[in-house]
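One-letter codes give the sequence; the fold follows as tokens. Both lines appear below.
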Amino acid sequence: MNKQKFIIFSSFFFPYIGGIEKYVYNFSKELARQGNDVLLVVTNHNNSNLIENLSGFKLLKLPIFSKISQRFPILKFNTNFWKLVKIIMDYDADYYILNTRFFITSILGCIIGKLNNKKILIIEHGSGFVEIDNKLLFGIYKIYERVITNIYKMSGVEFAGVSNKCNEWLLNFGIKTNKIVYNGISNSKILEYQSLDKDNKVSIDILKVVFAGRLLRSKGIRYLVDAFEIFSKDKANVELLIIGKGEMTNELMNNYSNNPRIKLLGELSNKAVLDIFVGANIVVIPSYYPEGLPTVLLEAGLTKCAVISTSQGGTNEVLKSNKYGYTIAPHSTEDILLALNYMYNNPDKRKEMADNLHQLVINQFNWQTITNNFLKYINS
């Protein structure tokens, strides 16, 4: 396959750790590994170097007003901004890939791509509106998202989702596509964990349940904690590990830091999270957030954890049946409690689910396969 040039636009990037950031990094790295030229454009939210080289691709960081850009970065149109724009304009890419519709980086990428008469693909990472607590702001945001999406449609860009569920969500904007660029696991991690012998890594004396993700209310963490408190009342050999930080950090610290069975570990590196997964039994994803395809679900499968999850986003495209995991309703302490008791009382079934999910993730949700499929369809 001929070498091609890609410009990929995303909003946040490392050290900010989230599903989209991991997706963009792994996609860029795999495209570069397969011999393509990749330029990744993000925002400079940690005031670091404007230009860096990472894993075979170049990274440009657009300046932003950092103090008011915690969720939706606002670009700073200074001298550095225009220098970076010139680099982007002069980069003769075959394809512009924009991640999420509503971030300013995607708008900028669309404008530059159209000026350069390039092919543009927008990858959808959500399956619903991202809720904002302020009703007025939420209403304005929904109008903004519809307006900007109509502009994209009129400009003739292509669309794809990270799951079928994302593509179903796009139908709400009059966008019909069957293109999917799934989320996945990097080849290096596949090689590291594909022969994992978990029996030698997990304590037989204690059942470890893990939550990993941003501590947002919509991630459902409160339902999990409430269920776990009931679940653990008559069991001495269980514990809940909570990994991450966010809007609920202080509430969880105030209410549960004195409970010896609930451990709040804060934000950890991806390597540290995977090490904890290796020593754990169950990962719970109680989210009602408009997910695309949760990275934590794939990482749980990679490390042979049994999964209890809602069906948000593309989860059911991975947990296709109860062979692969236990699906629960969102907003349901009762469902989580039933699932925890089932996993506790049926260790053989729990192991079977974990092993099946492990094989599925390795065979179908690896970045080499995903990138190969992507290159085939853009070249067809």
Observations:
- The first strand starts at residue 5 and ends at 9.
- The chain has a mean pLDDT of 93.
- The two ends are 12 Å apart (CA to CA).
